[in-house]
Design a protein that fits this description.
Elements (H helix, E strand, L loop, with lengths): L16 H31 L3 H29 L4 H26 L7 H13 L10 H25 L10 H24 L1 H5 L4
Length: 208
C-alpha cells in the first residue's frame, strides 16, 4: 500500500506555519524598533543633559556675581554717605537685593538650591574682594570699581534677556517681569557708565 501524506483540508486543529512565521516576524520587528528607540533615547539623553540642572547652575553663577556686586555697593554707600555717589550706591544696593530675590524664586520653582560648593567659594572671595573696592573719585581704584560694576550689570542684563525666552511656571516671575528687569539693568548700566566716563579725565588726564 502506497504511503501518502494527508492533504490539508483546513479541518486540522494545528497552527498553520504561515501565520506563526508572520507573527514571529512582527514580534521581531517590534523588538528591533523598540531597541532602536531605546538606543536613540540614550543618545539624546547623553547629548542633551538635564536642562533644568543647567539652568540652575547658570542662575547660581549669576548669584555668585551678585554676591560680590551687592557687597561692593553696600560698602560704597557707607563710605560715600551724604554724596551723590553714596545715593547712587544706596539705590543699587536695594535694587540688587530685590533682583537676587527674583533669581531665588526661579531656582525654587526649579526645585533647585541656591547654594553650591562653587557659590560658597565665590561668596568667600567676594568678602575679600570688596575690601579692595572703593577709593575716592579721581583715584584709579574708584574708576576700576565703577567699571567692574558696569560690566557685571551688562552680564545680568544678558541673564534677564535669556530668561524671557523660557517657559517658566509659577511661582517664577513671568515674561513681562523679566523684560522690566532687563530695562532696570539698562538704567543701572547707564548710571554707572555715566559716572565712570565723567571721571575719566580726573583719573587719567595729566595736569587735572
Amino acid at each position: 500500500m502506497e504511503d501518502r501524506f494527508p492533504e490539508n483540508d483546513g479541518s486540522s486543529r494545528g497552527v498553520s506555519p504561515v501565520p506563526a512565521l508572520a507573527l514571529a516576524m512582527v514580534i521581531g520587528v517590534g523588538l528591533a524598533v523598540e531597541s532602536g528607540r531605546r538606543r536613540r533615547l540614550r543618545r539624546e539623553q547623553k547629548a542633551h543633559p538635564d536642562k533644568r540642572a543647567a539652568l540652575a547652575t547658570y542662575l547660581r553663577e549669576h548669584l555668585s556675581g551678585s554676591d560680590a556686586a551687592t557687597q561692593t555697593v553696600e560698602r560704597l554707600r557707607r563710605t560715600h554717605a551724604g554724596t551723590e555717589d553714596g545715593r547712587l550706591f544706596g539705590t543699587l544696593f536695594a535694587e540688587f537685593q530685590e533682583e537676587r530675590d527674583v533669581v531665588r524664586e526661579v531656582l525654587a520653582s526649579l526645585g533647585a538650591s541656591e547654594q553650591s560648593p562653587k557659590r560658597l567659594l565665590a561668596q568667600a572671595s567676594a568678602s575679600v574682594l570688596k575690601t579692595t573696592a572703593g577709593g575716592e573719585p579721581g583715584e584709579l581704584a574708584f574708576f576700576r570699581t565703577l567699571e567692574g560694576l558696569s560690566t557685571g550689570v551688562q552680564g545680568k542684563r544678558c541673564m534677564w534677556r535669556a530668561l524671557q525666552g523660557l517657559q517658566l511656571g509659577a511661582p517664577a516671575p513671568g515674561y513681562n517681569r523679566f523684560v522690566e528687569l532687563e530695562a532696570l539693568a539698562v538704567r543701572q548700566w547707564e548710571a554707572l557708565e555715566g559716572r565712570r566716563r565723567s571721571l575719566a579725565s580726573a583719573t587719567f588726564a595729566p595736569g587735572t
